[in-house]
Amino acid sequence: MTLTFKLELKSDYHVGAGHRKGTEIDSALLREHDGRPALRGSLLGQMLRDSARELLTTPVMAKHGYGICKASGDREEPEYCGQWQNNEGVCPICRVFGTPRAPRRWQFSSAWLQGMQAGATAENHSNDWGAQPVMRVRVSPETRRAEANKLFSEEIGDSRLVFRFEATWQGNGKPDEKEIALLAAAAANMRHLGKSRRRGRGVCRVQLIKVDNQEPPENVDWLKLFKQELVDKKWQPEPHEQNKSAPALSAESPAPAWQPVRVRVVVHLDEPVLVAHRSSAGNQFEGLDTLPGNILLGALAARAVRHLDLGKTDDYQNFVGLFRRGWARFSFLALAHEKHDKLYPAFASPLDIFRCKRQSPHDPQRKFYDRAFALTEAEKEKIICDLCAKQYDEEDAEVEKLECLQTLRAGFMQELAFEQREEMHVQINPATQRAEDGKLFEYVCLQAGQYLCGEIICRNQKVWEALRQCAELIESMESKQQAIPLRLGKATRRGYGRVSAFFFVEKDDKGLYQNTLSQRLPDPKQPFTLLLTTDTIIRDKWGRFPTRFEEDWLAEALGLEKGDLKLIRGFAKTREIDGFHNYLGLPRWRDRAFVAGSVAGIQIVGGKYTNDEIVKKLERLEWEGIGLRRHEGFGQIVVNHPVYEAIKNPHSGARIDIEWKSKPQRVKLENQIENERKFRQDWEGILAQLGDKHLDKHLKEGQRWRQFEFKEFAPVARLLRARSDAAISDLIKELQALGDFKLEQPEGEKELYVEKKLNYRIKLGENQTPAPRETKKFFEKEDRGKPGIELIKEAFAKLQTTSNDAKLRAIGVEMLALIIAEAANRAIKEGRK
Ligand SMILES: [Zn+2]
Ligand SMILES: [Zn+2]
């Protein structure tokens, strides 16, 4: 079930991105990757929660005694209902918005602008779209005075923005109607958004406008229901349900037969994705540069839990098999670069590939200087650049590691890195409505708009069918690509992690590569490279984690006898894999893994196996991986990775890519702000032409604007500004009447008023004299004011054809008035007559 809310702003607002913008602005507005202003789900959920709490503490509702915990009332403890393990009462806030003990089952999306769809991308906007900078001083909360040296500028969002956001039910079955009623009432009670609410900024109005696809009020009047059920009566929500105990699995169900199916997964990030790997760096949550398989596994398992009845033995067995027993293997998700209808998935550069240090990184030829060493014996070959060694000597032939993600495109390796973004979150103290000290969190997350690729290996077609059904996946075809929305990573209830996922069943068994294993390894008795493309956890029989390649464990991992295998050279690096078990609330077992890119050169020796057997064995290992936690994507191996072909033969054209025709549509925004932006742009161009200026110069430098360089045009500019919203025909009449006014000079006053027949006054500045009586003539003289007046009329004619919108025309008149005023001021400054 999905609730859609509409958020209209009634004044400017500021929701900061937590960083500066350029040198001018201290606090930039939070924006999406496409430049449009953003509101994160974390903020929206928090606002609804605050608003609901405020409702419950109003006298009319407080009489029901809803405030039984700190979350819903002015109590110090318990912090939340059920904190002390009792299951007696639960307050509506804890019920709807969740507690540490029972996570909330509503998921709040990030907001999108009206006229778009959830998760859509807009056409790129400049990063000042829909906002303007303002200066502010900080006021000390104690003295209520401006503090010294606390002048800063921030970017404020336009009051004409209209957002929408969703709350999606993530629990089992259907939500209680009273929960919806509370959310609807909390939304209607919401008045303020973001900072500076005491200064009248961020006034907003929020409404529940849709429940699933039903637009109220046709179905239920939720506010009325709120009054009936929560105000007139007391709503006593059910206590949190006990975790169902799973049925006992009397016997492990046997693993399904091995006829593997490879399902390619392509993911487009619609919202930033947050994948924290540890929080050891204080309160900073860091993102990762690769996404381990448990992220995909977790997202699909979460979907499955909602559709299966885990109380039933069959469903439970399926679930355990799919997600815990390795019937399906969920790979790491790799960043992919999109270009010309292709996706180029990235891989960690193999550790045995080195690049000549002398060669400039900008040299297009440099790939000829990359060399791989896994197949060269350590005693015989040093790790140096042999080209330089020949040309100079060994000391001048230093090499360096690549150490980053690479893509392979037409025989070229290219670096690729995740685009990350930082977002700051403060925790607001509900009592004071101020940020709490020391409660600032920074999230480093993956920027939306990027692609990730991975795969799911199912043991057979039946397993894929089971997974597809229980996680409600849609299989895409080449001709018809269909995305399902998924949520990946952390903070998915708070507006992070929404992605569009595509699933393709692959027909051949090449995987990502152009060639099958037997094509990559024509003679299985020859040495080959074994590259670990994901982190790999190996544990020996003593429970130790080896830290380098050794024949012992390699033979075992590959299912060979010791002595069947010769290790030529290994390049390995290890790291610790930490994890956190959310259910137990404890850190997971710490594993030590070989990092992706570790590689060994090996050779199968002895005559025990036929060529066929070796190929079969290696093929299976490429499907299944080696080591522990393979169902989470650890231990992925590749024999003779295409990158080695690219290094050996620069003209091989070796590549790793996926056909990709479906690009996310970029929505053209149609709203007032966008219309105004376009109008300003168009009108500026027209004015530039009219003023006969070179386009690269400033607007005021147009040659024809010199016709306004008379002090008499200053009142004309003011007239236009003051009457910018008048109809153009009226303005022309008023221009013609210019000079036809009576002067009024109150005795002893410096201020002068020019009063016209029409009912308004124009105030003149100090150093300006009123137009003398011969002004009328001035505007009729060819060498004085007449050309200027004609030019204004010409501009008006153009303005009338540019826009029909009265508001936009008014802006057009003001822009023209500014040009006239600038010209007149130049004349006044120079004292021209
Ligand atoms: Zn509570
Ligand atoms: Zn070199």
Describe this structure in words.
The chain has 833 residues and is an alpha+beta fold. A hairpin with an 8-residue loop joins strand 36 and strand 37. Helix 1 (41-56) packs across helix 4. The longest helix is centred in the last third of the chain and has 24 residues, at 806-829. The relative contact order is 0.10. It binds zinc ion (ZN) (2 copies). One zinc ion binds at residues 356, 358-359, 369, 385, 387-388, 397. Residues 356, 358-359, 369, 385, 387-388, 397 line the site of one zinc ion (ZN).
Task: Summarize, please.
This protein is α+β, with helices and mostly antiparallel strands.
What topology emerges from the helices and strands here?
Elements (H helix, E strand, L loop, with lengths): L1 E8 L31 H16 L2 H4 L29 H6 L8 E3 L3 E2 L7 E2 L8 E9 L6 E12 L4 E8 L7 H13 L14 E8 L10 H11 L28 E9 L14 E2 L7 H15 L5 H11 L4 E3 L3 E6 L2 E4 L1 E2 L4 E4 L13 E3 L13 H6 L7 E3 L3 E5 L2 E5 L3 E10 L4 E13 L4 E8 L2 H10 L4 E2 L7 E4 L10 E8 L11 H4 L7 E5 L18 H7 L7 E7 L2 E4 L2 E2 L4 E2 L3 E4 L4 E6 L6 H14 L12 E3 L2 H7 L9 E2 L6 E2 L4 H19 L22 H10 L5 H9 L5 E3 L8 E3 L5 E3 L11 H4 L7 H17 L3 H24 L4
Parallel strand pairs: 4-35, 10-21, 23-25
Antiparallel strand pairs: 1-7, 1-8, 2-7, 3-7, 5-6, 9-22, 9-25, 11-22, 12-13, 12-22, 13-34, 14-18, 15-16, 15-17, 18-19, 20-21, 24-25, 26-32, 26-33, 27-32, 28-31, 29-30, 36-37, 37-38
Helix pairs in contact: 1-4, 4-5, 14-18, 14-19, 15-19, 18-19
